[in-house]
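Hey team,

Sharing the Maltase run so nobody has to redo it. Sequence (1214 residues) first:
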Amino acid sequence: MASASKRQQRPFCSPSATLCTLAIVASFGALVRCQSGGFGSPPPAAGQCDAAGPRQECGWNGIEDWKCASKGCCYDAKTPTQVGTANVKVTTPVCFKPNGGASNYDLNGGFTAAANGNGLQGTLKQSGSGTQPELGPDITTLSILVENVTPDILHAKIGAPGRWEIPKSIFLAPNVTASNGPASYQFNYSVSPFTFAVARSDSNGQALFNTVGTRLVFKDQYMEISTSVPETAALYGLGERTSSTGLELRRDGIPLALWNRDHQAALPDQNVYGSHPILMDVREDGTAHGVLLLNSNAMDVVLTQSRVQWRVTGGVLDFYFLMGPTPNAILDQLTTIIGRPVMPPYWSLGLMNSKYGYGSAEFYQQILNGYGNASIPLETFVSDSQYMNHDEDFTLGDKFPLSDMKDFLNRIRAQGQRWVPILDPPIHIRKGYEPYDSGIKEDVFMKDISGKPYVGQLWPGAVHWPDFKNPNTTTWWTRMIKGVYDDLPLDGLWIDMNEPSNYCTGDVCWNDDTVPPRNDFVCMIGCVSGRDQVLATAGNKSVTLNESYFNPPYTINNGDNAYNISYKTVAVTAYHYDGTLVYNAHNLYGMLETLATTSALQSLRNKRQFILTRSTFLGSGAYAAHWTGDTNSKWEDMRWSIPTILNNGIAGISFSGADICGFMMKATDELCSRWAAVGAFYPYARNHHSDGWQEFFRWEGTSIVARKVLATRYRLLPYLYTAFFDSHTYGCPVARPLFFTFPADNTTRNIAEQWMMGDALLVSPILYEKTTTVRAYFPKGTWYDFYSGRVLDATNGGKWDYVTAEMTDNVPLHVLGGNIIPMALGSEFMLTQAVRNASHALVVAFPKANSTYAGDRCGGRCGGAPQAGVQNACGHMYLDQGEELNMTRSLNNYLNLASQLVQQASGSYKGFLSATFAGTPGGSSGATCGKDTWTWPTIDTVIVMGVGPVDGDSIVIQAVNAASATPGTVQTASVDSTPGVTNLSAGTAKYDAALQKLTISGLNFQLTCPIGLRVSWNSGAPAAAPASAPASTGAPAALFGTAVKEPASPPNSVVSPPGGPGSASSPPSNFGSPSGASTESSRSSSDAPAQGSPAAFPSSSSGSPSPSGSSSGSPGSSSSSSGGSSSSPSGSGSPSYSSYSSSSGSSSSSPSSYSSPSSYSSSPNYGSSSSSSPSYTPSPTYYSSPSRSPPRSPSGGGGGGPGGGGPGGGNFFG
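Structure output:
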């Protein structure tokens, strides 16, 4: 939803020679007193002014330096006025009170053994008189606890009795017990003054966190601690904010505020919806560590070239030091504490669509028609709040009658799609509205300082906010959701505005029952702020809360303008059922709502939940997906989305994405096309917007690219779902900054416009207007163009090169040698169930001979230690029912993929590939195949890249019992004599000498636990430079029959048994475009493809024989020996779209399909008050019956048959 912010008027002191002036701040109604100081005061002593320290205003805007000094204050003429590169202004006092005074504590009596027997505890006593009294009195006695969590996690907490701490129960953390193993850290300290340093325990002994030479300040509402940091370190994290300066954090001394607020993500370099107090520090040698401060209070973190300083307004200093030493290891350690990233339902990885402004249930049907007619695979329809009755939760509006909504839901169920509606947390204050009436009766709302339910304003009018910290609220919330679910069985929920957002600012507000629904963010109710005003207006004389909570002594850099932290949200003086102040728990509100919603969905559906939340805190990623909020439809917003999503991953939020094509303003065809290509490789993919109309089917160009990139995404879902399993198991992000995979390569440290998707795929999109080529970085390794198979050789070190993609091309994508990727075959138009049902391929990408794998994997090394003469590639595939609540870890869940090229004494190579049920990480010892109800796919095709000339007669295909396989390795013994192995005779082999690619298709091998697949072959040595070409030589080649511009491939070299077809004298043919005799080696005794009609891979295993002679592709697929398009699958999960007519039987006023963009250049505004539907010029309704295939765009290429790849044929993986 849209949001707007208004600048709050700041407390000020008048420029006067008098000592103090009283000023009334109109927006708060509170008396704000100037602090002491006046002209003629002595200037600050040496060391009293810290330009990077906390600044309390001591003058006024424009004060001269001599006047500032005469007030006894500090003056800094170099104070920045702008942050980042997007012309964002920052307000920081130029004249400020002395802030460099010492503040020390001594360790009184030394350390003693901690009560839990796993660490140390002690008492800190303040020495000296403290500093900065304007920030409040010091707490003179503190406790300190230092304890081992694991050998790689050190916990150090400084606090005092009775102070707020985050309840650990909110974290879905795995069970981790303290370990007595050798620690990877040292904790060094001094007694007087007490300082400490955390260092690695290796011979280097590098200090990672060092407070020596800094001060420790601990007051009731201000705490400060600092560490020195090398200038060469790269720092990351501390979200959430949109960054205009890339992925690496700025170190300009401007405080980074952590305080959840409803602020447009389109306005960068400011705190927005989430708070993630995790800092990652990557040193010049590639080692990394993390610093987690588990604190939910408002805070600033200040980064300079030599120091990091935390300034926190409450709670305790609860630090966890994560020793790494790699970024992936840090995420493993972080999510040990805050919870592993959520394992999403399989279906939620498909495309979603929503819009703020669909004004009727009939309009929903029109959108389904639009996507279906355009053959764009829409998996999930997400409903914004227009379906409600005037934005009241748990209701339906006049244009969304229950009968129409049931028709809509029946249709998407029949088409294999899903529905996710929105809920906002506030409840409209209206008697007779059941959620309000029952909420009052059950006392589930947060209270204001006067003891009444807190009143604010949002979409429906005056509202109360549920107290999600109260267990009774979860029961009430579940019952409210059940009322909707019983009528309309939703598949998930989108929870928004949960920072929480509020039109108003005030400690106490009241409702006069006259405020109408509105979306302009203008407060229309009465409010007062400040303790005195509350006492005078509310008539409550029992308010005991200190004035400092109404106007905190330290103001964080909220919004880069020091906005009061109660501005446009629930006042920090409000409280929860147990007395917890919002001052302490504000940043947890969205997460607490996520917990309640998780409980509700799990109890109602008994399935894995899908929740999309806007507001987050550390640990939110263990329960929900997250999107980056309100972006603009602008090129810079598309670029900024990438580091924002990558930063979310650093905070343990793997399931993250941005509004594809932008939320506000109107996208162009070019921008939406490029954004569709980018968004197809977000972990979470949703087209969402408010202004205009920008669904993917609105423009011809966008429709073309959307079909291509989404076909790529859906076919990669076996790989992507596995990447989510890895994230859920080990904590690593799904979308990773390049420095996660290549931490020792300093060039990767601030690359914010490329990313790794899982272990194997490098995404390098086009992000600039009127551009078709981008300079991309390829770290050390062997890289294969995903579409053409061409090699980019960076084995001697990282290199920059150019990649090219026209507007309607697929996104540039490269595979890192050393990996194996599982992929689905099938038609271009598949939903997730069709992907699960389709035949699969295994793609092996070997690194260059005599090179080692350069990347860091999620979960660690596979394939064994590097050995001379051995090339390793590995991977795995996870599969389950797709949304069962209790994930299983039996043998049947996990397919281990391992491949080797082993050099023989003769100089030739023996190659192996195994796909075996070797056991799921985290599974119990002696796990069996279990009694699971899903079926593993058929393996139709194996592709091996980076292999020398293959002796076709040496290829052996075998079925392997899991009991005979060694997890994570490829056996090098004679495979024919291995127990539990059965030789098979099926498949067609082909070798491409130019690309050094072996393709074996038509295997039709049904994976059934415990029986896996093994392939072996003999080959010559790989060439030194296989088909290496600059990445800039044209657009990516065709993917699975979806055409892009691609020059003809070089002639194929054929693998054939002696005397078989395709001898050396056979005429050459371009790949996918047969010329003359067959160039295949058949391993099947019958049903071989016709001469001149090579198997078309991988659209649907066309031409690949099964034992019965029929195609073994996805359900309902067909092949064409003449190269025609293959029909869209009509089996389970492959929707057959039909036109919609209203339930009354009368025809809809809107056509069943959409016309060219000119037909809707002046579309009306279909808000919640509109009852009309848009008028479009009719066009044919494709997908009106399951037997009809949609026509292809002239530039969209053919289907799965031969030649469907466009010019020159040219699908790589086939």
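Residues 471-487 form the longest helix (17 residues).

Ping me if you want the raw files.
A.
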